[in-house]
Design goal:
Shape: elongated
Number of helices: 4
Bound molecules: zinc ion
Largest sheet: 3 strands, antiparallel
Number of domains: 2
Length: 162
């Protein structure tokens, strides 16, 4: 079956430099002589912010799964809380929570792909006449699992259903 992996959670915000005077110390340029300090200029730009790891408590750090039963949900909630807080800042114009999703097959670990309606109807791309839209394409185990759930005749091990 299709397994979804989520990683690289981030909060993406758009900052409008001219809206308020943002000191360059906000970018980490600290310790400059006050005469050489300045404020950000230019057009609005996007910044991606990675949240703190769930298991990072500052004094000790451990794997996400050791500290959470719902890693994706906890990252999502953490990112949404960050975003809500950041949007209260006057120079933050807009923002969103983003994550990278990859879909793989739990049987063979290959990337998950499904037949489109057109591919399922096309004999050059489908498995046999029982193929339907949404049928996986990676391996026989996944195809037959999909078919059993829907009461569709499974493939024979020879490669085609007869
Ligand atoms: Zn597979």
């Amino acid at each position: 079956m299709k397994t979804t992996h989520r990683e690289d959670w981030r909060v993406i915000i758009t900052i409008a430099p001219r809206y308020t005077r943002i000191p360059i110390s906000a970018l980490g340029f600290t310790g400059l002589d006050s005469d050489l300090d300045g404020t950000l200029a230019g057009d609005p730009f996007e910044v991606a912010i990675a949240p703190r790891q769930l298991g990072d408590f500052g004094y000790v750090s451990m794997g996400d799964r050791l500290v959470s039963d719902d890693v994706d949900g906890d990252y999502r909630r953490r990112c949404e809380a960050m975003l809500a807080e950041l949007l209260r800042q006057p120079h933050v114009r807009s923002g969103r929570v983003a994550v990278t999703e990859t879909h793989t097959c739990s049987q063979c670990d290959l990337g998950w792909e499904e037949l489109t309606a057109a591919e399922a109807a096309d004999h050059s791309t489908n498995q046999d006449e029982h193929s339907v839209e949404g049928e996986p394409v990676c391996c026989e185990d996944a195809i037959n699992e999909f078919r059993r759930e829907r009461g569709i005749p499974v493939l024979t091990s020879a490669g085609g259903a007869k």
